[in-house]
Every structure is written in C-alpha cells, then in structure tokens.
Amino acid sequence: MIGKLSSADFAVLGGKPLFERPRSTSSLYRPDIEKFLEYSKVFYEARQFTNRGPLVQELERRLAEFHGTRHCVSFCSGFWALVLTIRCLALPGRTEIVMPSLTYRRMADVAAWAGLTPHFCDVDAQSMALSPETVRPHLNDKTALIMAVHPIVNCCDASGLEALSAETGVPLMFDAVESVYEYLDGRKVGSFGIAECFSMHASKLLNGFEGGYVTTNDPELANRLMLMRGFGFSGQDNVEELGLNAKLNEVHAAMALAALDELEVLVGDNRARYRSYQVGLKEISGIRLVEFDEAEQSGYKIILVELLDDWPLSREQTLKLLNAENILARAYYAPPLHRKRTEYETISGTLPVTESLAERFMLLPCGHLVSEDDINRISLLLRFVQENATDLRGRLDRELP
Ligand SMILES: *Cc1c(COP(=O)(O)O)cnc(C)c1O
C-alpha cells in the first residue's frame, strides 16, 4: 500500500515519493462557492467594499455571538489584531511583555511592533503552554502585560492566569488563534482575560483568506480598537489615536461568513482525521499522538506528535525523510523564540522545559486536503520506518551525514 519494500525505496534515498502532491499541515478549508458568492453580492450591490460594510458588521455580530462575548472587532490579520490590542492594554510607563518562548514564530515581532520588550517565560511540561507558575518569576515592576497563548492542542490554564492577573494587577490577554472552537472548563474560549485575539488566515480553522479579530466584554477597548484599525479617525478628520490601516474588507468577510456557516462540517472532518491518526499511530511505540481532551469541545485542527526515546531517527532526520515523501511534516515551534536572533532586545532566563520540548515534537499533515486514506498511508510509512530502522539509519548516516 505504500509501495516500499526496503529502505532503499525511501524518497530521501532516491525512491519514489509516497505522494505525488504534497500533504501539508494547513487547513485550507474551502466553503461552498455559491455561498461565498451569495454573501459577496450583498456588498457588491451596496458598493461598499470596505470600511465596516454590511458583511464586516454581520461577521462581527456572529463571531461575538459564537464566542459568547459582548464585542468582536475584526482586522486585516491576526498579527495586527494582536499588536493593536497590546497597545491598548499595556500598563503605561512599563516596558516588558511576558510571553512564552515556545510559541507562534512571530510573537516577539508582534511585541516589538507594539513597542514592548518580549520577556520570555517557560512552559508547563504537560500543557506545553505558559502557566501561572511559569509566568510568576518573570513579573517585575516593568511588566506591562501578560500575553498568554493557547497551545495548539487543548488550552492553557486560563482561569489560573486570570487569578494571577487579578492578584498582581498586570493585565492579561490571550492569543487564541489555535482555540477558535475550544471550550475550557465548560466556557467558550473568547472571554478569558481582557481580550482574546484570533486569525482568519487561510491556514487556520476559519478561512477568511486573511483576517483577524478580537473578542472582549470591554466596550471601551472595543471602541478604541475600532478607531485604531481605521487610521485613528473618529468622525471626519479628527485623528484621536496613533492609527494605521488594519481594516478587514468585505470580500474577506464574505469568505469568513461562508466558512463560519460550515464550521461544524469542518470540525467533524477534522475529528475523523484525528481518529484515523489515533488508530494508525497506536501501534507505533516511538510516536505519541498528543491527545485532545475529549471532556471539552475541540476543533481537532492540528495533529501534534512527540518522538519518544525509542524512535530510531532524530527529529531532523525524520522531517527530512517525510518531506522527501511529500509529507510536509514540520517541527513544532522550533527554534523557540529565545533562541532566535532579533534586531530588538529580548529578555530570557533559563527555560529548561522549553528547551527540551522544542526538540521532540512535530506536526503531521492535516486539514481539508488530507484524506483518511492519506493518513493510513502516512501511519504505515512511519511504521515501515521503525521496522527498517537499523538499515535505514545506516544508510542515512552514510548518505545524509
Ligand atoms: C497564525 C498565527 C498568528 C497570526 O495570524 P495572521 O492572521 O497570520 O497574522 C498569531 N498567533 C498564532 C498562534 C498563529 O498561529
């Protein structure tokens, strides 16, 4: 079924790739085109293409309802949603933002654009996310804000972080890009902290081509964010805030609305893919699938695995081997942010858990374009790697030193 009889048949050693077309880790969900066009007619006929047109308003209303918050403010990207929210929430006169190092690749850049210095904290070994215990040692009299990031599987200890924020007076916001559909302690993600930020990039759960949004129960914050995303104008020429153009346009809102209509279908398909991986990877002793907490609701968007001590290859060798097969597996958040060189200052102590986790995890293909049959073949290939480990490792060491 995978067309390989010996380790010489691996594509990395000159064999034929398992897949002709790459299988990636991006969601790339494509809603029904008729639905997308139907939404698009609304703004097209009204000739309002941007500047909080009818579809942006409808999308914001529906997303606020979906997350159970009073307000939702949309943006041209998740990145600018984060930057502007940080600017609104940071305590004045303070300069540092505490954030995990094992996280979204551009998170430190987000902080730099917002004018703050990233101060990296460690993560909890179980949740792979920051926690009250990992944040606390990094709080000081320069701390302006805590940037909590929900990990890609399950959520961080949001209630514990809220308690830490209440105790210390340092405001708390969330990057909830990976948790659009998640519940935590029976509460929908979206209303934790002062605000939560989401992305609608095509690779994420809710595809708006590009886009982002912020959910909050704070009306003043919502108003300020709306001003800032549109040049800081309030009224005709009355510039009240340092603004920039970070608005979502109508055609992106049309796509996001069409995708939102079908979100349940996508999550159902994601769950089926996750089940196939659960079955396929179960018998492979060197690979552990990071499991979703089924007591809570999840979007099952991403497949994350840990390579255990009895897995025969290094992660880098494994990625090379899989990528040659057109299985576009990727290292999970590696290198961590505190290991990267940046043109701005960052602060970091020793982060032992981050260091160790950053070496061992990878993402496997998932999303709209990956079938259950693909997943069976990927699982069989991984099993074949393990069964041929000794021979394969010898060849890899010789030919790919
Ligand atoms: C993708 C992503 C973002 C940025 O969103 P964009 O819409 O691509 O700007 C932020 N945080 C996390 C965790 C992400 O995965």
TrEMBL record:
<comment type="similarity">
    <text>Belongs to the DegT/DnrJ/EryC1 family.</text>
</comment>
<dbReference type="GO" id="GO:0000271">
    <property type="term" value="P:polysaccharide biosynthetic process"/>
</dbReference>
<dbReference type="GO" id="GO:0030170">
    <property type="term" value="F:pyridoxal phosphate binding"/>
</dbReference>
<dbReference type="InterPro" id="IPR000653">
    <property type="entry name" value="DegT/StrS_aminotransferase"/>
</dbReference>
<dbReference type="Pfam" id="PF01041">
    <property type="entry name" value="DegT_DnrJ_EryC1"/>
</dbReference>
<dbReference type="InterPro" id="IPR015422">
    <property type="entry name" value="PyrdxlP-dep_Trfase_small"/>
</dbReference>
<dbReference type="GO" id="GO:0008483">
    <property type="term" value="F:transaminase activity"/>
</dbReference>
<dbReference type="InterPro" id="IPR015421">
    <property type="entry name" value="PyrdxlP-dep_Trfase_major"/>
</dbReference>
<feature type="active site" description="Proton acceptor">
    <location>
        <position position="204"/>
    </location>
</feature>
<dbReference type="InterPro" id="IPR015424">
    <property type="entry name" value="PyrdxlP-dep_Trfase"/>
</dbReference>
<feature type="modified residue" description="N6-(pyridoxal phosphate)lysine">
    <location>
        <position position="204"/>
    </location>
</feature>
<protein>
    <submittedName>
        <fullName>Aminotransferase</fullName>
    </submittedName>
</protein>
<keyword id="KW-0663">Pyridoxal phosphate</keyword>
<keyword id="KW-0808">Transferase</keyword>
<keyword id="KW-0032">Aminotransferase</keyword>
